[in-house]
Amino acid sequence: MPDHDSIRAVRWTDSGLELLDQRVLPHQETCLLLEQCSDVAQAITDMVVRGAPAIGVTAAYAAVLAARVRYAAQPADWKPAFAQDMQQLAQARPTAVNLAWAVDRMQRLAASQQGDPVPALLAEARAIHDADIAANRAMGELGAACIEAGSGVLTHCNTGSLATGGYGTALGVIRSAWAAGKLGTVYADETRPWLQGARLTAWELVKDKIPVTLLVDGAAAWLMQQGRVQWVIVGSDRIAANGDVANKIGTYSTAVAARHHGVKFMVVAPSSTVDMDTASGADIPIERRAADEVLQAGGQPVAAAGAQAWNPAFDITPAELVDVIVTERGRVERPDRAKMCSLMAITGN
Ligand code: MRU
Predict the structure, then answer these.
(1) Does the structure show a pLDDT above 80 at 4?
(2) In this predicted model, what pLDDT tens digit does every residue of 279-317 receive, in sequence order?
(3) Residue 314 and residue 174 share a domain
(4) 129 and 146 belong to one structural domain
């Protein structure tokens, strides 16, 4: 594997789907082997695997598991049970559109199959996985080209190999810019409440020998005020047709602070994250997660007993706060509906 890219979170094996358990990183590097589609759906809900593109890749392999089980049980009439599995899988998490995108793609292929569907579905899942890595590499180059030498960058959540098929979206740009010798300091928000920045981004970057400096989410605006970063670089769970961006909670406040301080704001996501059927961010479903994720840390209570918590997992950054969206199809500066339409029409949606 090339430099600064040694991690893979999702692996297909002959026995089933292997997922690196992201709930216990960085303290334990444990893999789960899953053989049932319903177990994969639960693993997505529980965030064993997370990050929009990684969820999409995982769902594609889950469809292979479903087909394997359903075809073995009822070779002449496996499709109705498979369709039910796909319906359940699509509901595992609501915000990342890559999940519905992958399920839809696998379902369309499954519908056209005569005989054993597994070889064709496995080839499709592998193609989705490989295409995601290739897209990340392309976006890495496109995004890194925007960054002036010596820039400090700030990222939010985890958008790296763990969150994708491999290499990463925003973290892919950071990997590419680092490899090109362009970056000063890489800053990462710790990303409360799930600590994707502190636990996952820091783990990936340390492992791949890219120095990283963590900060609490509330320090981001002050970091910008001090002139330490020139770019905020984030991923996305869904980009609406008008360029509004859903991403990890805290992204919006970072974008507001960036605009206030004249810091550029870059969103990096494959075209599978662009949802032209969703007109604007107002139409994107925002996942609400359990209050305990806020009230506890590492299973220990951190809040006063009796307090309640509001825990939206994502927020919407309006297109007007985005300087550039980078996809594998190209860059869109100051996105709006017309520019997103022409980006997605280049090779069809
Ligand atoms: O709740 P998570 O960890 O799945 O949220 C992940 C994010 O918000 C990422 O920024 C997004 O999925 C893009 S990952 C390349």
Answers:
(1) no
(2) 999 999 999 999 999 999 988 999 999 999 999 999 999
(3) yes
(4) no
Q: Whose CA is nearest to atom 9 of ligand 1?
A: 51
DSSP three-state, residue 87: helix
In this structure, is residue 2 part of a structural domain? no
Q: In this structure, is the dihedral angle defined by the CA atoms of residues 340, 155, 57 and 291, taken in order, positive or negative? A: negative
What rounded mean pLDDT belongs to the chain? 96
Q: How far is the CA of 300 from the centre of ligand 1 (A)?
A: 24
Whether the ω angle into residue 193 lies within 30 degrees of 0, i.e. cis, is yes
Q: 227-240 pLDDT, tens per residue?
A: 999 999 999 999 99
Which ligand 1 atom sits nearest the alpha carbon of residue 287? 1
Q: With a 6 A CB cut-off, is 98 part of the ligand 1 pocket?
A: no
Whether residue 169 is predicted with pLDDT greater than 90 in this model: the reply is yes
Residue with tokens 């009796």: 306
Residues 39 and 176 in one domain: no
**Is position 237 annotated as part of the catalytic site?**
yes
Domain enclosing residue 90, as ranges: 10-134
Of 134, 164, 195, which one is at a domain's C-terminal end? 134
Number of the ligand 1 atom closest to the C-alpha atom of 169: 15
Q: What is the CATH number of the domain that holds 62?
A: 1.20.120.420
Given 39, 237, 244, 323, the catalytic residue: 237
CA of 163 to the centre of ligand 1 (A): 7
The ligand 1 atom nearest the CA atom of 53: 15
Check whether 347 has a pLDDT greater than 90. no
Q: Are residues 161 and 254 in the same domain?
A: yes
For the cut 50, the answer to whether the pLDDT of residue 346 exceeds it is no
Would the CB of 164 count as within 6 Å of ligand 1? yes
Chain segment 199-214, per-residue pLDDT in tens: 999 999 999 999 999 9
Ligand 1 center–CA 112 separation, angstroms: 32
Residue 258: phi and psi, rounded to 5, are: -65, -50
User: How many Å lie between the centroid of ligand 1 and the Cα of residue 296?
Assistant: 21
